[in-house]
Write a structure and sequence with these properties.
The chain is built from twelve helices and 19 strands. The chain is an alpha/beta fold. It has three domains: 104 residues, 3-Layer(aba) Sandwich (Cobalt-precorrin-4 Transmethylase, domain 1), CATH 3.40.1010.10; 99 residues, Methyltransferase, Cobalt-precorrin-4 Transmethylase, Domain 2 (2-Layer Sandwich); 181 residues, Rossmann fold (3-Layer(aba) Sandwich), CATH 3.40.50. The longest helix is centred in the C-terminal third of the chain and has 14 residues.
Length: 415
């Protein structure tokens, strides 16, 4: 049996470290020496020595340009031997997985170098398997905040020299200013160096090629914001249109977040359900539908502050907003309707778009919305639950119970 690449192979992706050509194993060198065209960033292409005689083609820059560029390059050079250079391990937050997705696994060979996360943990003596890694390359740095907890160790893969300062500012603003930052620069190169400071005192200039190691330290009194559903109401900026903590925890339990799945949060208000859905796992995705401009802006701020800035905010009324979504957002695995239950067409659009096996949860707080829920329950089944919550509040010099508005919750799984 052959152990070499498939006959359909068109591209070898070679992981390269900051040490460049000298640090490559023989198989990686052979792939580059045999190539007729080598693709990569200008910095990575400049690491290759003259004996790599292939034509050097830099990847284009700009949002949305990469997939089109891959198609164009394959169309133009697919008959020639192709290779690409990528940073570290191409399958770890890297170029390799993107190319496999675009071209197919049988057409891409991945030749990894140790990843920057592996090298950083080796330098620090940290266990790689117990260290959470967040990539800020082409993604918002605010993603870091979903992983920040007292005592946690994190690695942030930096986009450029400005990333460490952005990380420091975010941590300081969230009450984690005493966290220890170790910025590891040019890992694996002869001029590798480390810079250490607290987040609150950070003012260093660093090399663009860096990784930020964070040892999280919370100031006394900093709120604990775990990934389980039911964050305090005070964690969200809101105008009163908020699914309250206790009801939200029950709602998320019925929605049942699953890694990689998509939620529609219709009539999102402050966006609390969409945000907690995304905090359940980094691969969870959510669309928050809210047509009121101030509330839509508030959802975006809440999502960034709670570490899930990729929540998609749709600023149109339902059901119209649900009909124009791009394909990647058009078939939800779960739908929550917190507002707009009585608007004609909303429940019909949600039920019609929901994938088979998907979950629909509707919270009704008015007589009219409860009537709509009871009608739908009669037609398609599901579970009905009445959620009533009392909270203790001062009554003069004593303490009494103050009820929240009761919620009728309908939960149903689509056959």
């Amino acid at each position: 049996m052959s152990t070499g690449p498939s006959e359909s192979l068109i591209l070898s992706v070679v992981g390269v470290g900051a040490d460049g050509w000298p640090g490559l194993p023989e198989r990686s060198r052979a792939a580059l020496l045999a190539a007729e065209v080598v693709l990569g960033s200008r910095r990575q292409l400049d690491l290759l020595p003259p004996e790599v005689t292939a034509e050097r083609v830099p990847w284009p820059t700009g949002t949305g340009a990469f997939a089109a560029a891959v198609d164009a390059i394959v169309a133009r050079h697919g008959h020639r031997r192709l290779a690409a250079v990528a940073s570290g391990d191409p399958s770890f937050h890297g170029l390799g997985t993107t190319l496999v997705r675009l071209l197919g696994a049988g057409r891409v060979e991945l030749l990894p170098h140790p990843s920057s996360a592996s090298l950083a943990c080796a330098r620090l003596g940290w266990p790689l398997d117990a260290t959470e890694v967040v990539s800020a390359v082409g993604r918002p740095v605010a993603l870091l905040l979903a992983a920040v907890q007292p005592g946690r160790r994190l690695l942030v893969l930096s986009a450029d020299a400005a990333t460490p300062a952005a990380v420091a500012a975010l941590l300081t603003g969230q009450g984690y200013g005493e966290s220890r930052l170790t910025v590891l620069q040019r890992l694996g190169a002869a001029d590798e160096r480390l810079t250490v400071a607290t987040a609150a005192s950070w003012h260093e200039r660093v090399d663009p090629l860096n990784v930020v190691a964070v040892e999280c330290v919370a100031a006394p009194g900093t709120p604990l914001l775990p990934p389980v559903p039911g964050l305090p109401d005070e964690a969200f900026e809101h105008d009163g249109q908020l699914t309250k903590r206790e009801v939200r925890a029950v709602t998320l339990a019925r929605l049942a977040p699953v890694p990689g799945q998509l939620l529609w949060d219709v009539g999102a208000g402050a966006g609390s359900v969409a945000i907690e859905w995304c905090r359940a796992h980094p691969s969870c995705r959510a669309v928050a539908v809210e047509h009121e401009p101030a509330r839509a802006d508030r959802i975006a701020r809440n999502a960034a502050a709670l570490g899930v800035p990729l929540v998609e905010v749709v600023r149109e009324p339902a059901p119209q907003a649900l009909k124009g979504l791009p394909d990647r957002l058009s078939e939800p695995d779960a739908v929550f309707v917190g507002g707009g239950t009585t608007v004609p067409g909303v429940l019909e659009a949600c039920w019609g778009a929901l994938r088979p096996g998907g979950r629909l949860v509707v919270n009704a707080v008015t007589v009219e919305s409860e009537a709509a829920v009871l009608r739908w329950h009669g037609e398609v089944g599901g579970d009905l639950t009445r959620v009533a919550v009392d909270r203790a509040r001062p009554v003069g010099g004593f303490t009494g119970w103050r009820p929240l508005m009761p919620v009728t919750q309908w939960a149903v799984t689509k056959p």
